Amino acid sequence: MVSQRLFDALPPFPKDVSTADVPKFSLSRLFSGDSVYAHEVFETCRTTGFFLLEMGGEEIGDNMISEVDAMFDMSNNVFDLEIEEKTRYAQDASKGKFTGWKDIGIMKTDTGAPDRCEFYALAQDDIIGNMSSLPHPDAIESHRSTIECFLRHAHSILTQILSILDAGLGLQRGTLASLVSQERSSGTLVRMIRYPPQPLSNRRTSLLRHTDLGAITFLCSIVGGLQILTPGSDPTDEAAWRYIRPAPNCAIINIGDALVEWSGGILRSNMHRVTYAPGAQADSPRHSIAYLVRGNKSVSMKRLQSERIPSAAEDGEVEMDVSCEEWELNKNKALTAGADCARSRGGRDLVPAVKCS
Ligand SMILES: O=C(O)CCC(=O)C(=O)O
Ligand SMILES: [Fe+2]
């Protein structure tokens, strides 16, 4: 949900590229309490797992638009720092440190080739104050309050979406939000990403196909490149990968694996990847900002109990009681090694709210 002003500064996404079938919802209607609209949002989270959320006109939406613009500015400045400076804040996957800077090529794509993107990740706990602050370059330190506002506003928008999911899953209002509280420790991150333009003669996937391991993601970008796998398709079928067209004032929201687990497979986390941008955009660097909301560290990954969520026993499964913290560590290691055998998950039919005999 970058502003129109920043979109106007870059070449447009071409009109003739076929794009994914992803609906656009509006934040003001989401806040209106319209139950038919809420049901459409829920069904999208169950069947596609991705949607656009348009903001503007509401106080929180307008704040978000200017905060996201400021985050993009900051991200540009961070990635433009000298490599020696960025190296001081390097991530260290072998020590489970996924905050700070990740150079291009550290991760693998699905062919085993090095990735083509740089990350700088910030822990929500660091910014909100759930832990003692981690050191960052001045380009970040001087913007801590902007980052905190961005996190608080994005979180309250996502809380609204989670309450729609509570209703659809037959959970008490506030159940899902209580698993991803901002006031308790979690692996939640805001990840800034820069993808340099790729040479015409050698263009390919820059970020491995994956599903997000957390609960829900709030993603902002201007330049295209994000693709989702058409539900029901084989990931090796190139024709099944479709671009999402970024739009001004719109965030891309997607469901992650934790919500699939908690909902017993009702909600859907869909595979996605990043490749070169289409048309004239391919010559511009691509920036994105992903707010990756994860469960509180000690929360279990076991499914929640409700009339609508089939129990593991009903499915003939024995559930492992892993905490979000352990689950994330294992998934992160696999992802870094390119060994994440990701597949889209979830999307099963809902049982009726009241079971009839
Ligand atoms: O850069 C993007 O648009 C997508 C990033 C992404 O999928 C992620 O960080 O999980
Ligand atoms: Fe992702």
UniProtKB/TrEMBL annotation:
This protein's UniProt keywords: Iron, Metal-binding, Oxidoreductase
Domain Fe2OG dioxygenase: 184-295
Keyword Transcription regulation attached: no
GO molecular function: metal ion binding; oxidoreductase activity
Statement: the UniProt record of this protein carries the keyword Oxidoreductase: yes
Pfam families for this protein: 2OG-FeII_Oxy (PF03171), DIOX_N (PF14226)
SUPFAM superfamilies: Clavaminate synthase-like
GO BP term, example: small molecule biosynthetic process
Record InterPro entries: DIOX_N, IPNS-like_FE2OG_OXY, IPNS-like_sf, Iron_ascorbate_oxido_reductase, Oxoglu/Fe-dep_dioxygenase_dom
Family as reported in the entry's similarity comment: Belongs to the iron/ascorbate-dependent oxidoreductase family.
Protein name stated in the entry: Fe2OG dioxygenase domain-containing protein
Gene source species: Letharia columbiana
